[in-house]
Amino acid sequence: xxxxxxxxxxxxxxxxxxxxxxxxxxxxxxxxxxxxxxxxxxxxxxxxxxxxxxxxxxxxxxxxxxxxxxxxxxxxxxxxxxxxxxxxxxxxxxxxxxxxxxxxxxxxxxxxxxxxxxxxxxxxxxxxxxxxxxxxxxxxxxxxxxxxxxxxxxxxx
Length: 157
Hints:
InterPro entries: PemK-like (IPR003477)
Structural class: alpha+beta
Organism: Pengzhenrongella sicca
Distance between the termini: 55 Å
Number of strands: 7
Protein name: Type II toxin-antitoxin system PemK/MazF family toxin
Strand content: 25-35%
Pfam families: PemK_toxin
GO molecular function: DNA binding
Largest sheet: 7 strands, antiparallel
C-alpha cells in the first residue's frame, strides 16, 4: 500500500470516529417541534446512542421552512415516545440582541463552553423551542453536559 493510500485511509477512519467530514442526515420526515411538557431526565452514557444529558450533532430544520435546515449541536433533554427531545445550541451571543429575541418569543440561557465546540466558545441553549429528533438521524455524540448545568437548564424550561 502506498503511503498516500495509507494516509487517505487513516484520514477516513479519523473522520468516521470523530464525525468530522460526515454529512448531516436529513430525516425522511420532520416530526414537528414538541409543544407539550418536557420531563427532563439526566442519563448520559457515551455508548453510541443519544441520551438525555448529551450534546449531539444532528439535522435541525429551520422554523420558517422545515424542508430546509442545517447540522447543529443539540442538547438531548428527554424523550417523547420514539423521539428524542432536544434544545439547540449556538455560540452566537444573543444577549447582544436580547430585546429583539424576546420580542420574537425566543429565550436563551448561557451554558458556558464545553467539548461540543471545537474552539471552546461560550454557548447558549434555546429554551423556547423543543425539537423532536429521530435517533437514527443523530450524526454523533459530542459531549456530556455537566449535571449542574443540565439541572439549571431543566429548571429554566
